[in-house]
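Most newcomers find our protein records easier to grasp once they have seen one. A learned vocabulary of local backbone shapes supplies the integers on the structure line. An example says more than a description, so a record of this kind follows:
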Amino acid sequence: ALAAALRAALDAAAAADRAAADRLDDLARAAGTGWASPPPPGRPALGAAPALVSAWWSGLTPAQRRWLIAREPALVGRLDGLPVAARDQANRLRLDVWRGELLAERRRLLSRVPPGPLAAIRLRGVVGRLAGLDALVERLTAGDAPRAYLLGLDPAGEGRAVVALGDPDHADRVLTYVPGMTAGLDDAPGELGRAARVLERCAALAPGERSAAVLWLDYDAPDFLTEAASAGQARDAGPALHRFQEGLRASHEGPPARQTVLGHSYGSLVVGVAAREHGLAADALVFVGSPGVGASHAAKLGVPPGEVWASSAPDDVIRAARPPEELGRRALFGAAPLAAVLGWPGRTGHELWFGHDPADPGFGGRVFSSGRGGHTGYWEAGNPALDGMARVVLGR
């Protein structure tokens, strides 16, 4: 069975390599016909200000842009500030390469006989990322409305993905959704489904509006509670989220779109920290199932407090995320049973692990209701939180 699996992996990798080579050969031939021509020397660095990136791209001819997409897709696909369509074209050219990297990693792990427990864990991770990538490719190539755009992908580690549903460059309303703990390439299709459900409600509530939604999973989300107890990974994500939002503004055509950034669970901390420490090009911020957003008041997030929204389900376990000093104090004195030490199911205050509960009116923002559904039920059909998120995106 192992030998058969290995042969299958090798065959798949070879097929992917041949397909990628054929595609690159076609593009190279096109580049030599005048359809594409080399641009002047000099490229924006990764991480360059999106406004500068946009200005650089605007100074290129269509033939030079086509040359860059064909010859330097790794650069074009990652530069915030470039048009969504250009990034999508460049990143699609790399899909076979990314899949080949995962197949090579799987092949390497399968070659270990016996594999050992650590290799087995890594193999499960690779298989999950392959499944996630294949599901994203299926959505990208399905032709379903709204059209999907691939704005970024990285199969390394737990994997990252940035995918838009609808064209943010031409939309009137744009949602950026930041997922939380354990999010990775393996479950990116499911996270994209959450963004899709908000978009569907937007279409139902405002049929004439052009809306788009982006799954922004371009950070290293915590995998374990020990990691999620620290704001370190949220701080690390801040500059990238800041640049991405600036890029959406820089590449947008026509009147400015209403930009909303939504964070769930640990993703709400990512959004809050980015807004407070770097500023976000956003008209509204939304937090659902939040353990705190790294701020004591909505006024510290850089958008009008009336555009800071939050919701917390009555049975969301995140409500047990009491501040560490409170948990320590209760545990030290030991006067309460375990349920009281954890602060579950009741609450006596409004402080959570990462600051004041944004779903408490005392935070200074606005609150919309959620039905029961635990920590992940905010997107379930019939939950008022789903309509709440859509109405914020629409500005209603």
In short: The radius of gyration is 23 Å. The chain has 14 helices and ten strands. The longest helix spans residues 2-31.
